[in-house]
Amino acid sequence: MIRSFTLRCGLLGLTFAVANGCDGGGADGRHRVYGKVTLDGVPLAKGVIAFDPAPGGGATVTTGGVVVDGAYLIAGEDGPTAGKYRVSIRSGGGETADAKSAPGMPPSLKAAKGDPIPKKYNAESILTADVGASGSTEANYELTSQ
């Protein structure tokens, strides 16, 4: 009888762990975010995407990821918390501005030299994302160079 109870408790715990692990969530209420980025209908070869909390949107962390061949994925443990975000996307063919232009910022997030992406998608971004309270969020961005 005790063995049966222990087995049931173990199975219940395993079920709970699997169910929580499969929703794309990470530590501290963070969530998996993924999607596609195109520029003039063509997948963006490489770049970076950043999610910054929008004022009054309930989001609490800034995060980002790398865009490769038009796709990005920010895993749950590194992802944003639920809420509204201002999204910025940059691509500079791997060339970033010098250290004086953005002191203390990681090289991958510095303003890119000769960025083909207009400011309306990065420095003055009009892009947004609404990250749900559970599971994964898909956020795709179709950018135009004009």
TrEMBL record:
Query: Which N-terminal stretch is annotated as signal sequence?
Result: 1-19
Q: For this UniProt record, give its keywords in alphabetical order, as a comma-separated list.
A: Signal
Annotated segments matching region Disordered: 92-116
Its recorded name reads Carboxypeptidase regulatory-like domain-containing protein
The lineage is: Bacteria, Pseudomonadati, Planctomycetota, Planctomycetia, Isosphaerales
